[in-house]
Amino acid sequence: MNEWLDSPLLTDLYELTMLQAYFDGGMNETATFEFFVRALPTERNFLMAAGLEQVMEYLERLRFTSDDLFALEETGRFSASFLRSLADFRFTGDIDAMREGTVFFADEPILRVTAPMREAQLVESRVMNLLHYETLVASKAARIVLTAPDALLVDFGLRRAHGAEAAVLSARASYLAGFGGTATLAAGLRFGIPTSGTMAHAYVQAHEDEAQAFENFARSQPGNATLLIDTYDTEAAAHKVVALAPRLANEGVLIRAVRIDSGDLAEHARRVRHILDEGGLTKVTIFASGNLDEYRLHELVAAGAPIDGYGIGTRMNTSADVPYLDSAYKLVDYAGQPRRKRAEGKATWPGRKAVFRLYLANSVMAGDWLTLEHESRDGEALLEPAMRDGLRCTDVPDLEACREHARRQLRALPGAQRTLERDEPYPVAVSDALRHMARQLDAGAGAAPAASSNATSPANTPPSASSGS
Prior knowledge:
By secondary structure, the protein is α/β, with parallel strands linked by helices. It has helices at 13-25, 52-61, 66-75, 80-85, 117-122, 124-147, 164-177, 185-191, 201-205, 210-220, 234-249, 265-278, 294-302, 314-317, 399-411, 415-418, 432-445; strands at 30-37, 47-48, 94-98, 103-104, 111-116, 152-155, 181-182, 225-228, 255-260, 285-289, 309-312, 327-334, 337-338, 353-359, 365-372, 380-381, 383-388, 391-392, 428-430. It contains 17 helices and 19 strands.
């Protein structure tokens, strides 16, 4: 990755001008900020938390180099004494967060930062950047997993991802959500994600004969060959595969799958499946790709297309239908006092908060409570310690554990949240204590929007549920 990705200068200018002002005013008491999404897009019934690992890596490495300080000095915006104070800057605070792979809803904090004000403020932009993108992609990928739960799903997004970091992190986010692998080699090597690849049309076109291209590639990748059969005539190519396979099999060279990347995928898949089966290649699977997402997969699954796996790229990696989330990183407590933003349409709940989840007897999610941190509630507490005093907690789950957690989360989703269309909203109740705190702050500050102006649930009590996790 580019060295700038670890730099504290990868931030908005106002983070550092605020730090200068905090420094000038002697303001560096403990602050708490929370990251949350204000409202679910109409195309989403739930979101999936992702990116915590990258946030912790960023915080652990956060340092100002001499080059960084020189660059800041050259801007002429910062005092020499302030810049000297950054020389030994470190993140020394605490992080509490939802485990990656956790399903969450509007207004629920998925990460809480508690640290001296300068530390908690500076990290805002990059923390939001990391959490927002992986959460965006994981949420899209989770919908794809729910749509085709029995298919092999592979991330194909590198070439149209919005930059190298996006390509690698979207591969991670989709794997977390339940994908089976990625075609992006760097992501596979970095995160231990299974990698897979087929061939390009160029390989076939470079040969004078399509069948010869198939044979050469299969011999080069014995036992792991997936042949791209839609360069010229899809069904004719399938017949060539049938003719080639027995001869290669006698030599121990196996054709694993064929891939279709264009045209009417459902109809081509039906015809190719018939050709393969008639030719005795019942174990050769069909893999499809080409601008796919959950909506297209829903159509293919509904049509009964005999497709065993899908390569999902552009529409997932860019989250084409929902390219951004209305995410926020807001101050909720400073110097031991709760803080509340009351701006029209963007009011926030004050104080350090917790989220508790209730389950029905059949382990299906029943509703959540948004409460103050100190409140005790039945249910599963979703925010867990991730860092203490700037150091990562030793029991933070790794990617494979979070992937399994995501699988359980999707299995526990109520029916209304599993659909592709907007359905009945999931109940998130706000505790009386939290509402009371908001009213108190509003009363002390004069006229203000109602404390419930940003609430996500019309009711204050989730459905009857057990407290099992």
